[in-house]
Design brief:
With about 210 residues, the protein is of the alpha/beta class. Strands 2-1-3-4-5-6 form a six-stranded parallel beta sheet, sandwiched between helices. Strand 3, helix 3 and strand 4 form a beta-alpha-beta unit.
Length: about 210
């Protein structure tokens, strides 16, 4: 089975290279999907991601590991009836609800230029209302290593420094795996990599 890795906003495929190499050492093949939000619209990225998924699905089973915005892009890309569902989707720190920090960041011109429509979508409740849930099996992993307290924008809510725990849930019924990591580099932590491995293990070559 192939694992398609989809990076987050303002990152590159290199950010998931360590996790991909870890998964390859445990028997999977991996492939990276890259995008640049400053030069592509959300819809353009989704179309390319859907084409990538459809091409992989023609030849083999697949799962997706997506960091942050990558999970939002994945949800949008899988809506097409001609796109076969993955075996599993693992979302790492994905803001599946409007993240409170996005509205603040959108006031900053550099953020608006760098993130484009993708950044604006994160601030828009209407976008999230129209974003479909996943039909495929999925697991949400959230970081809870961020600051809490009176000086934190999250108050006492657990967070990864960028996304609050509650913002990672697709629904209130989700059981989220919580790890003491921060948003930007969570994928580089060995306990998280081991967790992803264990989630995907039923779909590993050894189990076929």
């Amino acid at each position: 089975m192939k694992v398609l890795c989809v990076h987050g906003l303002s990152r590159t495929p290199f950010s998931l290279l360590g996790l991909a190499q870890y998964l390859e050492r445990h028997g999977w093949t991996t492939e990276q999907f890259g995008y640049f939000a400053a030069t592509e619209s959300f819809e353009q990225i989704v179309v390319r991601l859907r084409q990538k998924i459809q091409a992989i699905a023609k030849t083999e089973k697949y799962s997706i590991v997506a960091h942050s915005l990558g999970g939002v892009l994945t949800r949008a890309a899988l809506t097409c009836p001609n796109t076969p569902d993955p075996e599993h989707v693992v979302m790492l720190g994905t803001p599946n609800q409007p993240p409170r920090l996005a509205a603040w960041a959108w006031q900053l011109p550099p953020f608006r230029w760098w993130t484009g429509q993708c950044g604006f979508n994160l601030t828009d409740p209407a976008f999230y209302e129209a974003l479909p849930n996943l039909d495929a099996p999925y697991t949400v992993i959230a970081g809870v290593g961020g600051p809490r307290g009176s000086l934190s924008p999250f108050g006492e809510e657990f967070n990864d420094g960028i996304v609050a725990l509650g913002e990672t849930r697709l629904s209130s019924a989700d059981s989220v795996i919580q790890l003491p990591v921060l948003h930007t580099f969570m994928m580089n932590h060995l306990p998280l990599q081991q967790t992803v491995r264990d989630i995907l293990r039923p779909h590993s070559p050894a189990s076929w």
